[in-house]
Amino acid sequence: MIVLLERGAGDEEVRAVLARMQSLGLAGTPLVAGSQRLIHVTSGRTRRARHLLPEPAVRAILPTSGPRVRREGRRFYPFHALCTSAAGLALIGALVLLAGFFPPGVSETLALGQPPPPPQWPWYLAPLRGLLELAPERPAWIGPSFLVLLGTLVLALPLLDGSSGARPRGPVRVLGMLALVALLVLGFVGGAS
Amino acid sequence: MNDRAKQAGLLHELRGALRAPLGTGRPPWLSFGWLCVLLLVLLGLSGALLSVYYLPSLDGAAASVRFVMRDVEWGWLVRGVHRWGTSLLVAGAVAQLVVVFLSGRYRGAGAGSWLLGGAMLLFVLGIAFTGELLPWDAESVALADSALSGTAAIPVLGPPLANAMRGGSEVGAATLARAHTAHTLILPWLVFLLLLLELWFLARLRRRRERAR
After folding, report:
1. Which of A83, A86, B184, B193 qualifies as a cystine partner to B29, CB 3.0-4.6 A?
2. Cβ–Cβ gap A88/B38 under 8 Å
């Protein structure tokens, strides 16, 4: 929190503001930036600094992240709790809009002896469908086995990459990106067919 | 220690946890993990409402879903939220896995969390797939037939897994009953259990980082 003093404020005014801050349980360090005098609030409940606004020497109060916030981050309550609630409300709003504009349907019940229509695969199974479409002359086990192998490799990633850098090791990163691109391409193929 | 002192201790702990700083990284409410937790809560609530009207039988399933869509007040909205929420949950879980991979957090102390995340994604896919079968209309039957044939083609584990999901040699009443049980009882509780374990892992990681500081 920065307390911005009026232009031309002298030592007398700075002392008066510091005394008022002390009465509010705040401590601060006077600073000079060119002709502008400021007080950096260094400890105490910074919200109380708003009571300084009626002081004639005080021009404005600028909220800043304090050293604790910069070092340790914001507290869960109230900051993150409020943001999480807002994000939850936004999510509910988005879902209600999607459900309102694109409601799911129900097709007819299959009659006895009637052949089933071609299956409508959900989008998250589209890579499997794409794999089956791309290799029509395959032995039937190739497609599902490829996905099982890919899933096993993904789960075993911590064993395959024992490096300690901030990012995945080069070959692992390239393989991971290739797997992701392959899944996306197969998904598009499966979704389009 | 008497009850009042215990309560005061618990309240103190809770207050401490709520007021604890969360670190300087990306805010949690912008992460896909939180999005997935919120979606799981929403899906649990909307699923509970839908299960009031749903009949898991060959004749009654599609009719009960149609009844929810046409006759139950706001039923269409609850089912829409449930279905779109499932799609978003799958997308969010995949996105979270990609983010963890790209940031390299799957190694070292994060390995357990990675494994749990992968297992949770599999169970979420299971929940989504079994949910597609529940209306038991023509499309659901065709999907069950096609997907279970694909599962049976996996060498070694495939045939017994497909038989277990089908409940026999053909798709029928047993398939619907098993899909319903898996969708409403088994898989959601497994996901909930894994989620608790994941939170425990994350708390342990945080404590380790704090001690290392």
Report:
1. A83
2. yes
